[in-house]
Amino acid sequence: MAITPEKKFNTQKYISVLFFTLLIFGSGFFLSDYTTKKRIAQLNDLQQNLRTDILSLETQFSILNQAPCANLNESTLTNELYSISQKLTSVGTTLGEDDGNFLELKKYYSILEIKHWLLLQRAAKECKLPLAFIIYFYEDSKNCPQCEDQGYILTYFREKYPFLRIYSFDYNLDLAAIKTLKSVFRLQDETPIMVINSDVYCGYKSKDELETIMEKYVKLESLEDKTTTSTAATSASSKKK
Amino acid sequence: MIDLIEILTYTGTFAALYFGILVFITLAENRHCLYEKTPLLNLPSVSIILPCFNEENNVEDSLISLVNLDYPQDKLEIIAVDDGSHDNTLDKMLAFQLKNPTIKVLHKENGGKHTALNLAIPQATGEIIGTIDADCLVEPNALKQMLKYFHDPKVMAVVSTIKVRQPRTLMDGIQYAEFIVSGFIKKIISFLGGLTVTPGPLSLFRQETFTIVGPYRQAHLTEDLEMALRLQSQNMKIACAWEAAVYTKGKPDLKSLSQQRLRWQRGFLLNLKDYSPLLNFRAHGNLSFLLIYSLAGIFLSVALILLSLFQITKGVLGHLNQAWLIKFDFLPFFSFKNFNLDWIKLTPLAVMGFLALALILGFFFLGRKYTFEKGKIDEKIFFWILLYPFLNAFWWILTTASVVSGREMKWHGNNPGKKI
Fold first, then answer.
1. Which of A94, A129, A164 corresponds to the end of one domain?
2. Is residue B389 pLDDT above 60, yes or no?
3. Per the UniProt record, which residue ranges are transmembrane (chain B) (predicted)?
4. What is the residue range of A167's domain?
């Protein structure tokens, strides 16, 4: 029997199907690319906001010649920083950790982190804020298999102790400010590294180990308990002014 | 590994999208002939064969649904064949025959479903011969709806739309949705001359079909699939009737469902091997394209699911490790400030995932619309989307292993009417 008309291959039809498939597929890529670009733009805006806020606070320091404690709303600055960090992670996942754009954003973020740290250190001292600081250096999983675990433990600490400020830096990021930090603290190439009150701790520290170390510098329990009151107090005082 | 997943996902989504658009374009092209509108002026005589093995719980319901068909009694011949059942199937048939003397009851030694059908076919007097499984119930108007398609003299067989009764269990839900989608696709594929099964639940044939192509064969326990391939190899036309519904019982558990699917998929591969000339593009056009496409699709879906499983396992282990690191103290992570929508990343992969999901849901809802399915949509149905891809890949892996090892399968208790 001859081939039935239904079975006859209509090349034109299959080519139009291919055309529509390419169109929809391409639109999918375009949409994805568009949202990635939008995300990067958002990240740029956020970084710009934080930069302005930090500059504004630094200027207030200079004008008053002391820390403007009454006006200080450090939780806003910190939330801005964390928000950038989250967006940066998301961009890193989308673009890839080695992407040139991502590395540039990461460098800028690292500088903002250092400025934030310097500013808050001064504010904590002068305004007697119950803040504690950890500077954390990590590498990629190839060079530092335990860095991911250490990072997760530090995230847990940050969530548990809201007045603990953690600044994380890529140990190998080609940035003069990071190199300076490394030389100031005389760091050896043994990540993960944590710097707490100028003391350097090399190697992985478990949750319990880190809690014991932290207890040397600050009463963790009191950090945890005072957190909400302190945030509210600073926010309230800023509103009054 | 991630790169491989991306490549496979893009290829898989592209292939699925291509198929989806082919389906939608074919649907649009044939929008005026989705249902057979030619009135049935001359009712042909019809013989319906019901092969049974150990079907004492189903045979009566099935026979009732057959005698309740909207068709003149003098033109409808029902032949129930007991294939050497060990239970009371024969007694039930004979008891039913007492109340409905027009029904013919045949009995033979057990030999398999194809032998039961082949015993009845030569004795069938109808111009049209139908086969039905013992666990199926036919809608009263189904027969007339299917017969309309024979007004085209080239149509040698007509297949019905198989549905699973309203789901009560998770397994029912999975099968319900699956049958709705496959019912939708089958019709579209029939427009491309690509049907590869004349399903046991209810198919009709012109009487001369068997004279031309011969009787049923054992065919790796998928005689309905082999018959369709045989018709296709002779370029005989098979039509599909969306408007004719037959209800089958869903498999009650994962084991029996897996056994059934293993049998079907194994039958598909082995019968396709036996009918490999069907892959000849010049001789079979659309059909060969669809067959090659499904073979490639099987490979892609299995590879993708395996890689996804690898990723999921890796993720779960990673989370377990994290839980261990913080001594399962998750409390600090549950705060409102942690809630944000940043986790929704519109990566190309995510976009492709949404596209594939939209396609699958589109098939499901169109399937419901065109097959007049009125059953309630409940949450069980959506487990189909979650679980089916994994189950299907698992079955194909088992099927491939079974085909490669050359291990023979058996009917459950050599049961011809009861599908395993």
1. A129
2. yes
3. 7-28, 287-310, 346-366, 381-404
4. 130-241
